[in-house]
Amino acid sequence: MSAEGAKGRQTDSNISLGFVLYQNDRFFRSKLYTRRRATIRVLSASVRGREPNVVPQHVEMIFRPRNISGTSLYDFSCVFWNYSQKDWSTSGCSKGNTSDGLMRCFCNHTTNFAALWSYRENYEYAEALGVISIVGLSLSILGLVVTIIYHIKENFFGKSHGQPSNLNSKLALLCIYLSLLAFIITFLSGVQNSSRQIDTEVQIHNRTNDILNSDERIEPDSGSCTAVAALLHFLLMATFMWNSVYSTQLVLLVRSMRRSLPTHWTPLSVTLGWGVPACFMVITLGVSYRVDNPLGYRQEEFCWLAALDKKQQFNFGKPMFWAFLLPIGLILIYNIVLLVLTSMATCKVDTRLTSNKKSSLRRRFLISLSLAVLLGLSWTLGYFVLLSSEKTHQIFSILFCICTTTQGLQIFILFTARRRAFRATISRSISSFNIPLNSTQYNLQRKWKNCNMNQSETYKDLSDIEVTTSKTL
Hints:
By secondary structure, the chain is an alpha+beta fold. Helices cover 44% and strands 15% of the residues.
């Protein structure tokens, strides 16, 4: 809109143009549009003349949105302030073409104009799993599968089946293996977010002029990534809870010199091992999850609990801290105390640990190492990763990745491969594996000038393999 255009329609008329630019929206408090990052400038325009037709019926405005670090423009709307509704309205305004970063708005009246922006985060979707993680987790899956099969065969269907000795401990071990295996499989197959925001098309070229509800664009939750995050949360919490249940049972058995615990320990163990993690998962979902804003519960890049704020700084109010790091930290401290008590009690009870100095140190080390691996004490390195500086951060990250991803393999080596019964079973399986060989007969003929001779030879091995060779000369 220009003064020259207005003068062209009315000759010898006094035309007054008035513009007021508001640097913020203090006088335009909206209930429909929530501003968190963007700044709103409001432009008020008025045109007056002697005759009514001097008032323009078509107003064109061009806006250049301000860039916000780490975001990109997703959509905008052309609005004016409706004093009767005391809020923004799109009546009489429309969106124009966008080019070169300029947004065009058209309105058929002159009031208080504004352009409402909607930005979305520019997420960096890095690969969630590196080579070390994939290899370590794959080996852990293989080791846990073999361990579970052998554990069920020996303790529930083998010679010890039906005996009440250590039934609670055997059940706790099986639940540890199962929950850890389920966590690893879910992590490998679903931690990468398949419904990424970056795959959705921006709406700045859309001519639909609707009032935006916020200056932050968050895609509605599709459900799959949130379900994976909740399942990972539950399975990992269950693994640590069963670790604590098993270590508690072990301390009670060693210190009381009993072969088994009372029968009421079985339902109590199941309630603690599976029920407490389920309660944590449900409470976390109920408190922090919203369908229209799933990022309050989970991350956008990966299907895991939310941890960082808008400035990419660790936020203690996010579920990652109070729903995972805090309870897991308490469980790890509890397990470390039980590990010390178990090691001390075992060394006092087991006379083999004091037979000679060298054997005693070796047995003590293996017992402590096995329990430390089973109780997941390698996860304490994750807290050092969070607290470390730039120089040591990479070192702790590599150690944490190697130790945690190969936990299933370590359990297989320390709790299954070291057992004589398992090695004997594997040895029998290999020795009983036969390769069938067929009897082969060869006929060789050769002509002599002066005579013909026939000769047959048969060779037999001492084993059941028979080879027959016939030659004719």
